[in-house]
From TrEMBL:
<keyword id="KW-0732">Signal</keyword>
<keyword id="KW-0418">Kinase</keyword>
<dbReference type="GO" id="GO:0004674">
    <property type="term" value="F:protein serine/threonine kinase activity"/>
</dbReference>
<dbReference type="InterPro" id="IPR025287">
    <property type="entry name" value="WAK_GUB"/>
</dbReference>
<dbReference type="InterPro" id="IPR032872">
    <property type="entry name" value="WAK_assoc_C"/>
</dbReference>
<keyword id="KW-0808">Transferase</keyword>
<dbReference type="Pfam" id="PF13947">
    <property type="entry name" value="GUB_WAK_bind"/>
</dbReference>
<feature type="domain" description="Wall-associated receptor kinase galacturonan-binding">
    <location>
        <begin position="36"/>
        <end position="100"/>
    </location>
</feature>
<protein>
    <recommendedName>
        <fullName>non-specific serine/threonine protein kinase</fullName>
        <ecNumber>2.7.11.1</ecNumber>
    </recommendedName>
</protein>
<dbReference type="GO" id="GO:0016020">
    <property type="term" value="C:membrane"/>
</dbReference>
<keyword id="KW-0325">Glycoprotein</keyword>
<dbReference type="GO" id="GO:0030247">
    <property type="term" value="F:polysaccharide binding"/>
</dbReference>
<keyword id="KW-0675">Receptor</keyword>
<feature type="domain" description="Wall-associated receptor kinase C-terminal">
    <location>
        <begin position="173"/>
        <end position="244"/>
    </location>
</feature>
<dbReference type="Pfam" id="PF14380">
    <property type="entry name" value="WAK_assoc"/>
</dbReference>
<feature type="signal peptide">
    <location>
        <begin position="1"/>
        <end position="28"/>
    </location>
</feature>
Length: 288
């Protein structure tokens, strides 16, 4: 009898799953819910709230100021004041992303100093995460530059001794002060300090990039409930887009699925009752 009970329960569960899948495919879902499906640029991580890709996703799929563009190489790119940064990876759990300056791609591993510019971080949205230090990139340095700075020189094929390019980390204050007096241009680039940075690995450090964290509405309750996160430009508030419509935080439990589970539980309970009902014995007593 127990095997029959188990078979009855399994049949009910399979019926529930079939009906839910069939109904979701045959009924039209709420448009913003369909529009905010995760996308990517071909390479790199999948993109969803708080980020969005204009042209591939609607603006309401992301948070203001979190738009990403696709590079010609197929990577997502974050535009910050002054520079573009290639997005290597995104952790939606820790709300962080690893980026590196897109100008590094132009150096092609030649060792030449890339055309990096000073970047201003929009602190209302992003902040540095982990151990981040500053790398000073000096260029057009004079011939009278101290020989002590030779070890900081950024090698570049085809360049002679004239017009040195230097890469000096912020913690080397003495070399930074000397270079500031002998070089015409000083650009500051944020880099990750893993404890192994030093002269001679500037190109490698720039390509490794650094980690940013972001500040935006928490998307977890919406995603856990089966929704997709978005933003309302009208109310300027977070919205949870569900198959049947928008909600403020998360999707309500599906009525169809809840009703089917209730029916299955009732059917299973009736089957158990019939199999375990009291039967009179020859002695006049009852047993289960």
């Amino acid at each position: 009898m127990k095997e029959n009970n188990l078979q009855t329960l399994l049949i009910c569960l399979h019926l529930c799953i079939f009906v839910v899948i069939f109904s979701s495919r045959t009924s039209g879902a709420y448009y913003p819910y369909e529009a905010c499906v995760p996308r990517n640029c071909g390479l790199g991580p999948n993109i969803h709230f708080p980020f969005y890709i204009p042209g591939l996703q609607e603006s309401f799929c992301g948070y203001p100021g979190f738009e990403l563009n696709c590079s010609q190489q197929g990577f997502p790119v974050l535009q910050l004041p002054g520079s573009e940064y290639v997005v290597q990876d995104i952790s939606y759990q820790t709300r962080s992303l690893r980026v590196y300056n897109a100008a590094v791609l132009s150096s092609n591993g030649t060792g030449c100093l890339p055309g990096i510019r000073n970047t201003t971080l929009p602190t209302a949205r992003f902040g540095f995460y982990g151990n981040v230090t500053q790398l000073h990139l000096f260029s057009n340095c004079t011939n009278s530059t101290s020989e002590d700075l030779w070890r900081h020189r950024v090698g570049c094929d085809g360049k002679g001794r004239d017009g040195w390019d230097l890469g000096i980390y912020d913690k080397d204050e003495n070399s930074t002060n000397i270079a500031s007096k002998n070089c015409k241009r000083n650009v500051v680039a944020p880099v990750e300090d893993d404890g192994n940075i030093g002269p001679g690995n500037v190109d490698e450090v720039l390509r490794r990039g650094f980690v940013l964290n972001w500040t935006a509405s928490d998307c977890s309750p919406c995603e856990i409930s089966g929704g997709r996160c978005g933003f309302s430009a009208i109310t300027y508030h977070f919205r949870c887009f569900c198959p049947e419509g928008p909600h403020s935080r998360s999707c309500p439990p599906g009525k169809l699925f809840s009703n089917l589970l209730s029916d299955c539980s009732e059917t299973h309970a009736r089957a158990r009752f019939k199999s375990n009902k009291c039967i009179p014995s020859t002695s006049g007593r009852f047993y289960n």
